[in-house]
């Protein structure tokens, strides 16, 4: 086996293993491509100048599961809009069927996958679904969600133009309680967050906003939202702005706190090169 062929084969295997690690279980591959995998490029006999293979594929070659999983994919193939949507729908189906956290799967009414534009420039990430979200299957539809919608509208955008998701796709269970919410455990976040990572990888937003301490902790592994709020961070090369969760503003409606969150939004708008009016710059400033 030539060094070039060995390097190509190793690169192909690494690429496919990467796909498997991201949850891809089915790879479309043509029979001729499979044959090419077991029949390396021809080499030239310096004496006869006759092209001959280093080794030939069996005449009765039949693709196996192992060869399908190891089949090469174009390493730089551009993602089309249709394939992006297909990948997103496949990810959604996997998330909706997830039972990795048996206690959450048993108590949930709906998996809250996410909502919005999969080509959004701006993505919001919250903590976990609450009772309203669990009931409707959509993130941020309760009181905090209504406030978030107002904040988004104040920038000149709509919910349909951004994407909204959570660290957890299921509502954290509260055994013995009929109301209230609890923070996701580290184990729950570690189990569920790969779905969010895949969402971000597919959407490729230009800016991410982490809403609250849990979202910041889940994405960056950092704590201290009060100190880090308003300071640009980076998630795998994407600018990330930590800010207070809308539920915090429902509990603390001081003008100063609203202004802090709005200043974070102004910074995001500037990062996205959105137009900002004088009226917008002066929101929540004392007269």
Could you describe the 3D structure shown?
β7 and β8 form a beta hairpin. The protein has 287 residues and is α/β, with parallel strands linked by helices. Mean pLDDT is 82; it is low at 30-34 and 38-78. The chain is globular. It contains 13 helices and eight strands. It is 45% helix and 10% strand. The protein has two domains: 3-69, no CATH class; 81-281, Uracil-DNA glycosylase-like domain (Uracil-DNA Glycosylase, subunit E, 3-Layer(aba) Sandwich), CATH 3.40.470.
Keywords:
287 residues, alpha/beta, Uracil-DNA Glycosylase, subunit E, 2 domains, six-stranded mixed β-sheet, two-stranded antiparallel sheet, 45% helix, globular
Q: What is the 3D shape?
A: globular
| Class derived from helix and strand content | alpha/beta
Major sheet strand order: 3-5-4-6-8-7
- Overall pLDDT score: 82
Separate helix tally: 13
Give the fraction of residues assigned to helices.
Answer: 40-55%
Q: How far do the termini sit from each other? A: 77 Å
β-strand percent reads 5-15%
- Top-tier CATH class of the largest domain: Alpha Beta
Q: Segments where pLDDT lies below 50 for 5+ residues?
A: 30-34, 38-78
Number of DSSP-assigned strands: 8
CATH architecture of the largest domain: 3-Layer(aba) Sandwich
Put the structure in a nutshell.
This protein is α/β, with parallel strands linked by helices and 287 residues long.
């Amino acid at each position: 086996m030539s060094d070039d062929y060995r390097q190509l084969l190793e690169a192909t295997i690494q690429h496919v293993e990467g796909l498997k690690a991201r949850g891809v279980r089915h790879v479309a591959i043509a029979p001729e491509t499979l044959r090419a995998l077991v029949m390396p490029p021809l080499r030239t006999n310096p004496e006869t100048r006759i092209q001959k293979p280093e080794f030939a594929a069996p005449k009765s070659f039949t693709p196996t599961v192992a060869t399908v999983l190891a089949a090469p994919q174009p390493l730089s193939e551009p993602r089309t809009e249709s394939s992006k949507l297909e990948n997103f729908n496949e990810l959604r189906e996997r998330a909706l069927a997830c039972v990795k956290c048996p206690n959450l799967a048993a108590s949930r009414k709906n998996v809250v996958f996410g909502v919005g534009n999969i080509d959004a420039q701006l993505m919001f990430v919250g903590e976990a679904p609450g009772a309203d979200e669990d009931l409707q299957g959509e993130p941020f539809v309760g009181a905090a969600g209504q406030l978030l919608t107002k904040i988004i509208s104040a920038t000149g955008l709509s919910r349909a133009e951004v994407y909204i998701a959570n660290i957890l796709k299921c509502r954290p269970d509260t055994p013995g309680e009929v109301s209230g919410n609890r923070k996701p455990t580290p184990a729950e976040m570690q189990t569920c967050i790969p779905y969010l990572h895949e969402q971000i990888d597919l959407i490729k937003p230009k800016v991410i906003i982490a809403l609250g301490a849990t979202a910041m902790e889940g994405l960056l592994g950092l704590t201290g939202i009060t100190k880090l709020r308003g300071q640009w961070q980076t998630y795998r090369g994407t600018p990330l702005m930590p800010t207070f969760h809308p539920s915090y503003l429902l509990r603390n409606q001081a003008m100063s706190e609203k202004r802090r969150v709005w200043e974070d939004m102004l910074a995001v708008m500037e990062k996205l090169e959105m137009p900002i009016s004088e009226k917008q710059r002066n929101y929540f400033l004392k007269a």
